[in-house]
Design a protein that fits this description.
Layout lengths: L1 E6 L5 E6 L3 H17 L17 H6 L1 H13 L12 H4 L2 E3 L10 E6 L5 E5 L4 E4 L12 E5 L7 E5 L2 E6 L2 E6 L9 E6 L12 E6 L5 E5 L14 E5 L5 E6 L4 E6 L5 E5 L8 E6 L18 H4 L10 E2 H5 L10 E3 L8 E6 L13 E5 L4 E10 L2 E10 L6 E7 L3 E7 L11 E7 L8 E7 L2 E6 L5 H5 L5 E9 L7 E5 L2 E7 L5 E7 L5 E6 L15 E6 L6
Antiparallel strand pairs: 1-2, 3-27, 4-5, 5-6, 6-7, 8-9, 9-10, 10-11, 12-13, 13-14, 14-15, 16-17, 17-18, 18-20, 19-30, 21-22, 22-23, 23-24, 24-35, 25-26, 26-27, 28-29, 29-33, 30-31, 30-34, 32-33, 34-35
């Protein structure tokens, strides 16, 4: 074995194991010597060559040939060893905050304040402030409780010295008026929806949009029904405190956030009318799938118009989108148990490159898998759709809120109460930073009329990326039904006919026969390598192809 260490463009020193396979050498030499015999070298032994005991004449006569073959084998056996490949942690390390002893801080939302402190809300109705949250180490002594006695705060926003909190029953605002570091003034901004006490009735609130509104997604009563006003809806709370019904069809949200273009998205979770977890676009006047809350159209006509037709149970998302004008199909479907099981918080990379090569893309948490996923979005036929990619695993608890700061830092909060998680802690607050090294990843996956265009964060090995055998694609969708969840259905296997690498080696056009509108197109790029010889850090992508572009 030979070890060769070379730093590549990713900044990672890749150790390459060169293993000389003696049986392979013996086979090649035997074939070579047999060929030489056919050319007239009849004096060579007719029995198979034993590599350990070649004749003295063979060693003398063919030493140059043996040396050449050894060199060729050495050059063709230099793939990086799997145990030495760079990992997610090399590119995006995680800093775990030390939470004060005895405090159960199941994070629900984050808000960085003008003085540099980080406000963190709790599912248990508290708000804490963390001094210097960007420090290399964050200790328990940096935490101070700012407020308590609230009800499951799942949204924070700040403006004009007030901290706005979205809790289960309302949007309120709180302030410290005497400067002692503790909130002493509490005001209700709007409480125009209702609660029953059912555990499922979460209320996730956004930060302020460009018009100064807070968007709130309201979970149904249980999984199926809307027993209280506006459960199963998204509403906007205006700067004046007015409630505007905005979007119907919500089931069980796990987070809400903005795309970098200002559009609002939320995550919904597998259950009735949701075959799998999804990222969905919140567009005023639209219906996003679950008809359980549509009984409230009677009091929302001014903002929403007439109640839309209910979807047909047992149909497919894209089929119903063709029948119901108000229906907005999922932007991205997260394949169940592949990408996660409980989609949660949303953040967008608004850092201009301070978080690595993914500026403008969205990130979505998964509570069960304790992960953060990455999403590329594009607009086709006026509607958002796109691809999701694995990004970072290994968080301490079940990922819930995400917050991306322009400085290039992402805060990640965790909880596993009510649902288990791969992260073993009951709760966690963590920060994910970019190390400055660029991972070799699929950067974007763009739909084309006859396939897809892949872009990469680093130049690819042209020979490997041009080979259609380097890729594998399958498609499937989910049943749109009143029953809970759905298996993958209607599976197909498209054919990747050609792969064409761009002159700069940073993009590849895949020409595909058998694209399926309304299906997830699952791509595996196992054979792709960077020009430096590295495999992709993540080799899977899942594109929700609601619509095939015309050009």
């Amino acid at each position: 074995m030979v070890n060769c260490s070379n730093p590549d463009k990713s900044g990672i020193k890749s150790t390459k194991k060169v293993v000389l396979d003696m049986s392979r050498i013996e086979s090649i030499l035997s074939v070579s010597l047999s060929s030489l015999r056919l050319c007239g070298f009849a004096s060579l032994r007719e029995k198979p060559l034993a590599l350990g005991h070649p004749s003295r004449s063979a060693r003398s006569a063919f030493r140059p040939l043996l040396q050449l073959l050894a060199i060729l084998l050495l050059l063709t056996a230099t793939a990086p060893a799997d145990d030495k490949l760079p990992t997610e942690a090399d590119y995006y390390p995680i800093t775990t905050f030390e939470i004060p002893e005895g405090v159960v801080l199941e994070a629900g939302a984050f808000q960085l304040l003008p003085d540099g402190k980080l406000a963190v809300s709790s599912r248990r109705g508290e708000v804490w402030l963390i001094t210097d949250p960007l420090a290399k180490e964050v200790r328990a002594s940096q935490f101070q409780r700012f407020a308590h006695g609230l009800h499951e705060v799942l949204g924070l926003a700040q403006r004009d010295g007030w901290l706005y909190v979205t809790q289960r029953c309302d949007v309120s605002r709180i302030k410290d008026t005497d400067g002692d570091g503790v909130a002493d003034l509490f005001e209700v901004v709007n409480d125009g929806w209702e609660v029953s006490g059912d555990y499922h009735e979460y209320a996730f609130g956004s930060q302020f949009d460009k018009a100064g509104n807070i968007w709130v997604v309201l979970c149904l009563t249980g999984s199926f029904d809307s027993n209280c006003k506006f459960r199963g809806w998204c509403v906007r709370i205006t700067p004046e405190g007015k409630l505007i019904p905005t979007t119907s069809g919500i089931r069980s949200p796990g987070g809400i956030g903005f795309h970098c273009d200002g559009e609002v998205f939320y995550t919904d979770n597998q259950g009735p009318w949701n075959g799998t977890c999804a990222l969905k676009h919140l567009s005023p006047g639209k219906f996003v799938g679950h008809p359980g809350g549509n009984r409230w159209y009677d009091i929302a006509k001014e903002a929403m118009g007439e109640r839309p037709k209910d979807p047909e149970s047992g149909s497919r998302f894209i089929a119903e989108a063709g029948k119901i004008p108000e229906y907005e199909p999922p932007t991205i479907l997260f394949p169940y148990k592949k990408m996660g099981q409980s989609a949660s918080g949303i953040a967008c990379d608004n850092t201009g490159g301070k978080f690595g090569p993914f500026a403008g893309q969205m990130f979505v948490g998964d509570q069960t898998f304790s992960t953060v996923m990455r999403c590329y979005l594009e607009k086709i036929n006026g509607r958002y759709q796109g691809a999701c990619f694995p990004f970072r695993e290994g968080f301490g608890s079940g990922t819930l809120p995400l917050d991306m700061e322009p400085s290039g830092h992402m805060f990640v909060g965790g909880t596993n109460r009510g649902w288990g998680s791969r992260g073993s802690k009951g709760f966690a607050i963590e920060r994910m930073d970019w190390s400055g090294k660029t991972p070799f990843e699929m950067h974007e996956m763009k739909a084309k009329p006859d396939g897809f265009e892949l872009t990469f964060t680093e130049p690819v090995d042209t020979a490997k990326a041009t080979d259609p055998a380097s890729y594998n694609m399958t498609t499937y969708t989910y049943i749109f039904q009143a029953s809970y969840g759905s298996p993958e259905v209607d599976a197909t296997t498209p054919t990747i006919k050609r792969a064409v690498v761009a002159p700069d080696a940073r993009s590849v056009r895949l020409y595909v026969d058998g694209l399926q509108p309304g299906h997830v197109h699952e791509l595996h790029a196992e054979g792709v390598r960077s020009a430096a010889g590295l495999p992709l850090l993540h080799r899977e992508a899942y594109y929700t192809l609601n619509y095939i572009p015309a050009e």
